[in-house]
């Protein structure tokens, strides 16, 4: 059956460490909706952090789980969903999210991201052992996949509360 715009789940996309989880949680609270973080769902399934899932089972395994969990959740109504920064590498995930949900891209400039790197790098298997130049290249390659969205928020000069309010207002 057709889902009305107001019932659609919201999906947050963007590079690692831009705040998809924190902002998603806050938006969920403001809209009285349930929040789901895809990485956390997968971590619960396997009782281990994503970094360890990558290490023990490999990235392809993780990506398949990611697709499975997102396919399921994105078809539910009224959810606030944050997906991992690599989810939109899979065209199938892009399609499912863009057709069922409202997709918000949380954008941050490379310069701002770089300042936060020490807070982000240790828990992200994809960034391990890469030089800063390498990570910068990855950052810009990923920007291209995030261009598939419905709405975008520039988060550079906003705090978390301001970003969440902006998103909630834009849905009215
Ligand atoms: C990944 C991002 C991570 C997590 C995994 C892979 C990526 O999610 O899914 O480590 O390839 O960008 P966050 O964007 O929440 O860090």
From TrEMBL:
Q: Which Gene3D superfamilies match?
A: P-loop containing nucleotide triphosphate hydrolases
What is the first-listed, main subcellular location in coarse terms?
cytoplasm
Q: List the cofactors.
A: Mg(2+)
Q: Specify which residues bind substrate according to the UniProt entry for this protein.
A: 39, 63, 85, 142
Q: What is its EC number?
A: 2.7.1.71
**What is the catalytic activity of this protein?**
shikimate + ATP = 3-phosphoshikimate + ADP + H(+)
Broad EC category? transferase
Query: Which Gene Ontology MF annotations are present?
Result: ATP binding; magnesium ion binding; shikimate kinase activity
A UniProt-annotated Pfam family: SKI
Q: Where is the signal peptide?
A: none
So where does Mg(2+) get bound? 21
Q: Which family does it belong to?
A: Belongs to the shikimate kinase family.
Q: What is this protein called?
A: Shikimate kinase
**Gene name per UniProt:** aroK
């Amino acid at each position: 059956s057709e889902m009305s715009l107001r019932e659609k789940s919201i999906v947050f996309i963007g590079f690692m460490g831009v705040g998809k989880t924190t902002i998603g949680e806050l938006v969920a609270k403001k809209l009285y909706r349930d929040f789901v973080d895809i990485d956390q769902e997968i971590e619960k399934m396997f009782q281990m952090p994503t970094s360890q899932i990558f290490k023990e089972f490999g990235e392809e395994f993780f990506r398949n789980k990611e697709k499975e969990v997102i396919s399921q959740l994105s078809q539910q109504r009224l959810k606030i969903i944050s997906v991992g920064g690599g989810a939109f590498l899979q065209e199938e995930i892009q399609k499912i999210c863009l057709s069922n949900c409202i997709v918000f891209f949380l954008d941050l400039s490379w310069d701002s991201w770089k300042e936060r790197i020490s807070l982000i790098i240790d828990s992200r298997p994809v960034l391990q052992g890469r030089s800063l130049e390498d990570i910068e290249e990855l950052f810009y390659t990923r920007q291209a996949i995030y261009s598939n969205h419905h709405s975008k928020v520039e988060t550079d000069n906003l705090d978390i509360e301001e970003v969440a309010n902006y998103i909630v207002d834009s849905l009215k």
